[in-house]
Automatic annotation (TrEMBL):
GO terms for cellular component: nucleus. Residues 152-182 form the C2H2-type domain. One of its GO terms (biological process) is regulation of transcription by RNA polymerase II. PROSITE patterns: ZINC_FINGER_C2H2_1, ZINC_FINGER_C2H2_2. This is Zinc finger protein 395. It comes from the Eukaryota. PANTHER family: PAPILLOMAVIRUS REGULATORY FACTOR PRF-1, ZINC FINGER PROTEIN 395. InterPro entries: CR1/CR2-DNA-binding_regulator, Znf_C2H2_type. Coiled coil: none annotated. Residues 1-23, 64-141, 209-260 are annotated as: Disordered. Residues 81-101, 228-240 have a biased composition (Low complexity). GO terms for molecular function: DNA-binding transcription factor activity; RNA polymerase II cis-regulatory region sequence-specific DNA binding; zinc ion binding.
DNA sequence: CCTGCCGGGTT
DNA sequence: AACCCGGCAGG
């Protein structure tokens, strides 16, 4: 009837949206985005082809990032959210494929190489026995006792490496992810934050994250965000065009300082770790599901408008003081109460309404945000 | 006011 | 399916 006719940009709302071109052409977001994607893809491809590392990385990192980029936009909720097929409403506007199988989000966490990292029947000699990460990565798919073995798993966004010694994992993290050289660890022991202790059982790979900090209980609230790893795969962060294009544009009033924090995958991790430090009950799963969530927040410019607090520290008010004396009615049998609207800055607030194309799909559709869950 | 999002609409 | 928006709840 009239709803979808290029809405003559009614009132304030429309004005708030696309500040550009409110005169000519109306439905232009789409083409714009596509253009961007293509550009980005091209750019990344070019740089990739020029990069020294083409197909050597032991892990799947390079592959991963590449495919991600090529496929289009990194955070289009394609399936990454791996929404929990339970709790809260189950309707799900999107559903991201009817797959309700809670399969492990980790693409490479397959139980194939959990057994062991090397096929030597010999028991470990005195010290740390770690397969060199650069030589064998996911071999030795078979053989393992039915005993629970403690291992250490790399928590990096897309590295599911599991080693059996603590030093090994540290070394792995340092070398591969932090890109640290032996002498540059002057900063601090960040490696401690990137691995977790897991207990391997039998053949199935069941990881159990330990609440307390593994190894060293160092409590670093905020690891210094700095650009690390010179050549390691860095997630393709689709910075807002305003930021990437730079001064090319003129109209928009986007100062976009973005001074301290900026790009590189690790950036996304700082948050996670920060949270992690304060609120531990986390299973490796949430990492995968949250990694994307935090990334944009850190890398994207907060909307200049609105003098609200633009601090990027999760409120995380009360982690639920579960004890006795609960008066609320536990049995929620009766009419469900609208889900109590979550209290976490959602895409709208984070990116601002003028960067709507950066919101998660759910937010754009005015559905429950899937990027910044509660 | 503003923000999150359910329900329901159109393509 | 994907996409969008009215309108409501709740701060
Ligand atoms: Zn969202």
């Amino acid at each position: 009837m009239m709803p979808q006719v290029p809405p003559p940009e009614h009132g304030a709302q429309a004005m708030a949206y696309r500040p550009v071109s409110r005169n000519i052409d109306v439905p232009k977001r789409k083409s714009d985005a596509v253009e961007m994607d293509e550009m980005m893809a091209a750019m990344v491809l070019t740089s990739l082809s020029c990069s020294p590392v083409v197909q050597s990385p032991p892990g799947a990192e390079a592959n991963f990032s590449a495919s991600r980029v090529v496929s289009g936009d990194p955070w289009k909720e394609s399936g990454d959210v791996s929404d929990s097929g339970s709790s809260t409403t189950s309707g799900h506007w999107s559903g991201s494929s009817g797959i309700s199988t809670p399969s492990p989000p980790h693409p490479q966490a397959s139980p194939k190489y959990l057994g062991d990292a090397f096929g030597s029947p010999q028991t470990d000699h005195g010290f740390e026995t770690d397969p060199d990460p650069f030589l064998l990565d996911e071999p030795a798919p078979r053989k393992r006792k039915n005993s629970v073995k403690v291992m250490y798993k790399c928590l990096w966004p897309n590295c599911g490496k599991v080693l059996r010694s603590i030093v090994g994992i540290k070394r792995h993290v340092k070398a591969l992810h932090l890109g640290d050289t032996v002498d540059s660890d002057q900063f601090k022991r960040e490696e401690d934050f990137y691995y977790t202790e897991v207990q391997m059982k039998e053949e199935s790979a069941v990881a159990a994250a330990v609440p307390s900090a593994p190894g060293t209980p160092t409590v670093e609230p905020a690891p210094t965000p700095r650009v690390t790893s010179p050549s390691l795969a860095t997630l393709p962060l689709p910075l807002s065009k305003a930021q990437t294009s730079g001064p090319e544009h003129s109209g928009l009033e986007s100062p976009l300082p973005s001074g301290a924090l900026s790009k590189s995958a690790p950036g996304s991790f700082w948050h996670i770790q920060a949270d992690h430090a304060y609120q531990i009950p986390v299973s490796p799963h949430i990492y995968t599901s949250i990694s994307w969530a935090a990334a944009p927040a850190a890398a994207s410019p907060l909307s200049p408008v609105r003098s609200r607090s633009l601090s990027f520290s999760e409120p995380q008010p009360p982690p639920a003081a579960k004890s006795h004396l609960i008066v609320t009615s536990p049995p929620r049998a009766q009419g469900s109460a609208r889900k109590a609207r979550g209290e976490a800055k959602k895409c709208r607030k984070v990116y601002g309404i003028e960067h709507r194309d950066q919101w998660c799909t759910a937010c754009r559709w005015k559905k429950a945000c899937q990027r910044f869950l509660d």
